[in-house]
Amino acid sequence: MIQITLSDEILAACPDLHVLAIACPVKNSESDVRLWKEIAQEEENVRQTMKLEEVNKWFPIQATRQAYKRLGKDPNRYRPSAEALRRRILRGLPLYRIDTLVDLINLISIRSGYSIGGFDAGKIQGGQLVLGVGKEGELYHGIGRGELNIEGLPVYRDAIGGIGTPTSDEERTKIGLDTTSLLMIINGYSGREGLVEAGRYAAECLRKYNEVSAIEAKMITRNQAISITI
Question: Does the predicted TM-score (pTM) go above 0.85?
Fold first, then answer.
């Protein structure tokens, strides 16, 4: 697995941050009918159990928003992806159909409340990622968003530059139908509670919809990265 470290800069603002990284070989495909049945069920569950004004108060989403505020970013202008997905459902807007891996990651995010980075690991440069904070003028192209102002956002950087924030991942390392190696990062700004359960659900979905057999997972905190079984 690609090495992931948390910078002192991000930990100063988010001392209880826990990150669960999942890596596995994959074979991506067009949107899966079975997966979309499960997504439809989750959409209905969201509509039945949550109101629009409650989305930003749900603990994992609220914790991500609080991290934005501590770093000087307005979470109402740059919404975490998990919040944006749930808001879209509650506003009656359809979810985007991309491909099996991206759709699957969105489902996990909707269910868990975590903003999840999904990357083609083969496109990551330098063999490691560092989670830091976006700088003024830092060039970043959000997927489907064009240039994104990431100043004050948590950002994963490889040897070239930023590839992932809780608001949007970067075009350069995005997942495609040709992706054969997946790196999924579940960002627990609310701490460890619920993170392993989200990872186990992610593994279940990968096995069910992508026939993945070998999954490597690590829990990354301030001073350590521990392998876990999911």
Answer: yes
